[in-house]
Structure formats: structure tokens, C-alpha cells
């Protein structure tokens, strides 16, 4: 897209939403728009699409991603609304109601991108998160990182067993990779309440913000932390387990040093050579951004109506 340049100056302080009791549909779509826009604009991201590189992708660039973002963002208000109206429904019932909305959102993405998959995983993860925001607010439970993640985990309770372990005929990449390697991908991450984000990315993020580091640096460090430990099925589908290990070890090595953009460009080059793109970690970076806008909170027991 003409005139797009690396975002050198990110907002110094992330945009903070209203108090949870006032969070509305517009707030949610603004937050998701900002999360997706910051993620794709962050530059340089090894193997991924950004302002200056298409990463390991022949079929998409930042223009396609921005078209995808514009097409899918309105749907997150519907995910939020689904949560708001779910106050008496069981967690499993809520997931069943979310899926068709998610599939319709995927179709809106494919229509806007002429069939290119930019955000399938992001629609799933962020859709669950927005639904959790709606349900917690409607139930007047304080919205914190902990309560959001526990609610997402409650929505997805048993999902890996139902859709991966007990699946006699795998159809998708993720379903096949579970059969081959036991990797639960996006489903497992959601069922564990985004534990990779909570254990590896959020602590790094919060330390960086406390130290008043630039948001771009905070996001890149958090992305490296995700790449270092996330069991990203994109990497396995593109480069097998050796591809996943290459990226994890490379990111772990960078985390042990004072990395610079040059180190990231070099890793970008080596990942492109190997056709490796950590799309799952890119999605979790957007999740990390949204969670960072809320207080961490104590461990809140989600009272389910199940
Ligand atoms: C629940 C589904 C989304 C599961 O889909 P699937 O069965 O395919 O399972 P996964 O492989 O586990 O995940 C699909 C996408 O999720 C991202 N992902 C991968 N690993 C992880 C992880 N460990 N943690 C979190 N997220 C993960 C990843 O998505 C991103 O990468 C895609 C772009 O990369 P690319 O390599 O280009 O991908 P392709 O186009 O497929 O490859 P090429 O053809 O280019 O080579 C993009 O999707 C990013 O988002 C995985 O790809 C699904 O079954 C489902 O239910 N969908 C409906 C949505 C829904 O229900 N939403 C409502 C809320 S419930
Ligand atoms: N920036 C990005 N590049 C490639 N795949 C992605 N999936 C989510 N964000 C992505």
C-alpha cells in the first residue's frame, strides 16, 4: 500500500479502555482494531508480514492484511454481544453459538482477501476473548487478565478432547498435526487460558512498560518470547518439528542477548529461506496486547451455570 512506512513511533502508552462496567461494543471493536493494526505494523517481525517484508509469504503483504482487518473487526462486536447475552447459558453452549459467527467472520476475511488466510487463528482466539469480555461484564465480574483467561478456558473446556483426540477423520492442518505430533495448536492454547501468553509474553510486556521502554521494543521482545516457547502449528506445517525447533532456539538465543533490529532482519532472512512463518505467535501477540490493557487481577473462580 503506497506510503506505508515502518511504524517507528508507537503510542507511548497503550490505549486503556473504560472501566469494565462501562466497556461497550464500540470499545471492543476499537481495541481489536488497534491490536491487529499494531501487530501487522510492528517491524521487523521475523518470518511474518510487516511494513517492509512479506516474511515467508508469497500470497500476502500488508495491504492484504489491512483489508482482512477492515473486514473482520466489526465481527468482534458480535462476539462481545454473544457474551453479553450468554449470562444464563452454559460455557459449552456459548462456544457452540460462537462457532457459526466465527465461521461467518472467516468468510468475510476470505472475501476481502480473495481467499487468503490472514487471521483464521486470530479470529478464533480474539473472538473467544471478546466473548469473555461480554460475559464477564454482564455478570458484573471484574474484568482482569486472570478472569478473561479463565473464562476463555471455561468456554473451551474439553475442546481438545472433542475435536482433536476423538477425531476419526482429521480435515484441517491443525487436526492433522495433532494426529502426527500431538500438537493442540490454537485450541489447546485457548483451552489452557492462553497460558503461553501469560507465562512468557505478559511478564516481559509488563516489565517493559514499567521501565517506560518504547511500545515497539516491548512488542518485539514479547513476540520473541512467544516464538521461543509457543508450539506454533504454522511452523510445523511449513517446516516440520525441525522448523519449530529452529525458530524456538533462534528466539531463545536472541532473548539471552541485547538484540537489535539487525538481528531480527537476519532471522527474518533465515526463516524466509526455510519458509517459516510463526503466524500463531503473531496472533498471540495481539492477544497479549489486549490483555495488557486490563489489570492482572487475582485468581477469580468463574462461577459457571453448567
Ligand atoms: C479452532 C480453529 C481456528 C482451528 O483451526 P485448525 O484446525 O487449522 O487448527 P490450528 O492449526 O491449531 O490453528 C489454526 C490457526 O491458529 C493459529 N495458531 C497456530 N498455532 C497456534 C498456537 N500454538 N497458539 C495460537 N494460535 C495458533 C495459526 O493462525 C495464524 O496463522 C495463519 C497465517 O499463517 P499461514 O502459514 O499463512 O497459514 P495458512 O494460510 O494456513 O498456510 P499457507 O497456505 O499460507 O501455507 C492465520 O490463520 C493466523 O491467524 C493457525 O493457522 C478452527 O477450527 C475454527 O474453529 N475456526 C472458526 C473460528 C471460530 O470458531 N471463531 C469464533 C470464536 S470460537
Ligand atoms: N503479521 C503476520 N504475518 C503472517 N501471519 C500472520 N498471522 C497473524 N499475523 C501475521
TrEMBL record:
Q: Which reaction does it catalyse?
A: 3'-dephospho-CoA + ATP = 2'-(5''-triphospho-alpha-D-ribosyl)-3'-dephospho-CoA + adenine
Under which main EC class is this enzyme filed?
transferase
Keyword list (alphabetical) reads: ATP-binding, Glycosyltransferase, Nucleotide-binding, Transferase
- Could you tell me which Pfam families the record lists for this protein? CitG
Q: Which family does it belong to?
A: Belongs to the CitG/MdcB family.
E.C. code: 2.4.2.52
Identify this protein by name: Probable 2-(5''-triphosphoribosyl)-3'-dephosphocoenzyme-A synthase
Drop me one GO molecular function for this one: triphosphoribosyl-dephospho-CoA synthase activity
Amino acid at each position: 500500500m503506497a506510503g506505508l512506512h515502518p511504524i517507528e513511533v508507537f503510542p507511548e502508552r497503550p490505549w486503556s479502555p473504560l472501566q469494565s462496567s462501562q466497556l461497550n461494543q464500540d470499545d471492543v471493536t476499537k481495541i481489536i482494531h488497534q491490536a491487529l493494526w499494531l501487530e501487522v505494523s510492528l517491524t521487523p517481525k521475523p518470518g511474518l508480514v510487516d511494513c517492509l517484508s512479506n516474511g515467508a509469504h508469497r500470497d500476502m503483504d500488508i495491504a492484504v492484511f489491512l483489508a482482512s482487518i477492515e473486514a473482520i473487526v466489526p465481527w468482534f462486536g458480535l462476539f462481545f454481544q454473544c457474551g453479553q447475552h450468554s449470562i444464563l447459558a452454559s460455557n459449552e453452549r456459548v462456544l457452540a453459538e460462537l462457532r457459526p459467527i466465527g465461521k461467518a467472520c472467516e468468510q468475510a476475511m476470505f472475501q476481502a482477501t480473495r481467499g487468503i488466510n490472514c487471521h483464521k487463528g486470530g479470529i478464533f482466539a480474539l473472538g473467544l476473548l471478546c466473548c469473555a469480555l461480554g460475559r464477564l461484564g454482564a455478570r458484573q465480574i471484574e474484568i482482569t487478565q486472570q478472569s478473561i483467561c479463565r473464562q476463555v478456558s471455561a468456554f473451551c473446556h474439553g475442546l481438545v478432547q472433542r475435536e482433536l483426540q476423538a477425531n476419526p477423520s482429521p480435515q484441517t492442518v491443525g487436526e492433522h498435526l495433532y494426529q502426527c505430533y500431538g500438537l493442540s495448536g490454537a485450541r489447546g492454547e485457548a483451552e489452557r487460558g492462553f497460558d503461553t501468553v501469560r507465562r512468557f509474553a505478559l511478564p516481559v510486556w509488563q516489565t517493559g512498560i514499567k521501565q517506560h521502554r518504547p511500545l515497539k521494543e516491548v512488542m518485539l521482545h514479547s513476540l520473541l518470547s512467544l516464538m521461543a516457547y509457543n508450539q506454533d502449528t504454522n511452523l510445523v506445517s511449513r517446516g516440520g518439528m525441525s522448523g519449530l525447533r529452529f525458530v524456538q532456539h533462534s528466539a531463545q538465543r536472541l532473548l539471552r542477548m541485547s538484540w537489535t533490529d539487525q538481528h531480527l532482519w537476519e532471522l527474518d532472512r533465515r526463516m524466509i529461506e526455510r519458509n517459516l512463518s510463526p503466524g500463531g505467535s503473531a496472533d498471540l501477540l495481539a492477544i497479549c496486547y489486549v490483555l495488557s490493557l486490563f489489570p492482572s487481577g487475582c485468581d477469580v473462580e468463574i462461577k459457571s451455570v453448567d
